[in-house]
Structures are given as C-alpha cells and as structure tokens.
Amino acid sequence: MQSDYYLVEKEGAIATVWLNRPDKKNAMNPPAWIDSVGVFKELDEDPEVRVIIVAGKGKDFCAGIDLFEIIGMLPELLDPEQKGGVKWPLLSKLKLMQDGLTVIERIRKPVIAAVQGKCIGGGLDLICACDIRLASADATFSLREAAVGMVADMGVLQRLPLIVGQGIAREMAFTAKFIDASRARDVNLVNEVFEDAEALQAGARALAEEILGAAPIAVQASKDVLNNAITSQIDEGLSYVAAISGNIVPSNDLMEAVTAMGEKRAPKFTGT
User: What pTM did the predictor assign?
Assistant: First the structure.
C-alpha cells in the first residue's frame, strides 16, 4: 500500500514499517492515522511476512501528533460552538484514529517497535500497541498530552498501565515528563537497550529472526490468546476516553498550548 507517512520494506519474512517523515521528526499527521489500517492489514495478509518491525527514519522515532495538521482533520477541537452537531462527528473521528493504532495490536503477526531518539505522545501510543519494544541508548519517552492541554485518547492510558503498572503510568500521564532509555528498561517499557541506532536495528532484526525460528501458527495463536485477556478492557477504555476527550475540548488551555507552540514559548495554563 502506498502511504504519505509509512514506508514498507520487506526482506525475507521480515517487514519493516518506517515512520517516514524525518524532516518533521516523524510527527503524526493525518496519513499516520488513516493509512496505518491498510498498511498493517496488508502485511498481516501477506503470506511471506511473519514478523514486523516498526522504526522511524531520521534521528527520532516520533515527535508525537502534528498538532497544526491534526487540527485540519479535527477542526472540532477548536470550535467554540460545542453543540451535539460538533461533538458527534468528533467522536467518530477519534475512534477512526484509535483504530489506526489498534490494528497494530490486533493483527496476527508479532510487531517489534525499535525506538531511537524522541518518542513522544502519539509515538508512545503507537509503541504501546506493539508486542515488544526495544530502544537505543539515546531514546527518551514522554506521555505528553497533559503538557498541551489534552487527555491522551489514542490508547496509551489503556495499554501503558498493562506494561509498566499503574504507578509509573500515572506518573508519566500527570507530569508529561521525559524518561530516558535506562529508566524505560527499568520499568519494563522496553525489553532491551542498545548502544546506538545501528545496534538497535541489528538487535530488532536478531529478535525477529529468533521469532522466525518458532512455529508461525503457534506464535500467532499465542498473540491471540494474550490479546484475548485484555481486548475487552482496552475496547471499553477507548470508548470511554474518546467521550471524555470530546467533553473537555475546546478549552482555554488547549488554545493556549496551540498559541504557545506557534510562538515557541512555554504555555501558561489556567485550568479553564
């Protein structure tokens, strides 16, 4: 599938899905959310592909949502007339975007995230939908939405606690602070840390090769069974957070975050 955001490369039974917007630090514009369903389903249906690696072109994995471009897709976020006719289509759009990450979790084949540099906001949402996460030593992670006056509504609040536990997830959500690769490994956000991006890619491929050594039907069935334990919980949480997100926008804090970003200064939040 052709995409304006993803680049797919296949080598043998391993496919690499590159976040391919390096000039913008792979910030997630509308194609990042819309194209992913087709990209990952196509790989899931490809009989030659057995393992998928997700990585970012350039020095950073993902700088999160491209707020300026996403507002073009979600003008309801800043619409002062927050009546039912505005809220209802916003809810549908949020669920469409959620599906763009849930597809990674629900396809049959294992997905490994290889993270270098910054992994912020939507990038963290994405890797939490992957089965396994690896990082380079320079990787940093931030659940960033609270810093821009939003609630994280793409699945990280549902998936991250299952990976790192409630205490760490709440600390990351409430502070929006960055944690480094070493801390990420300590809290089980990533399985292993590699010296640099080159070693990371080699490590991701080595792990993929290990998975290829197992029976594919057993690997896929294992993923299905592991997902079965959490699917209903995540689906309910996604519906709930979409409704909550729609209820708290627009806010003065969100508008201040957009203004501050354009003016390249720290936002001054008022809680309104």
Answer: 0.94
The reported pLDDT for the residue numbered 97 is: 95
Residues annotated as part of the active site: 65, 122, 125, 145, 153
- Concatenated DSSP letters of 73-108: H-GGGG-S--SHHHHHHHHHHHHHHHHHHHHHHHSS
Identify the helix (H) or strand (E) that includes residue 36: helix 36-45
Answer yes or no: is pLDDT of 103 > 90: yes
Compute the distance between CA of residue 211 and CA of residue 52 in angstroms, rounded to an integer: 11
Q: How far is residue 45's CA from residue 174's CA, in Å, rounded to a whole number?
A: 39
Across the chain, where does the E strand assignment appear? 6-11, 14-19, 51-56, 111-115, 118-120, 132-136, 140-142, 178-180, 192-194
Instruction: Tell me the pLDDT tens digit for each residue of 120-140.
Output: 999 999 999 999 999 999 999
- Phi, psi for 243 (deg, rounded to 5): -65, -45
Q: 6-263 sits in which CATH class?
A: alpha beta
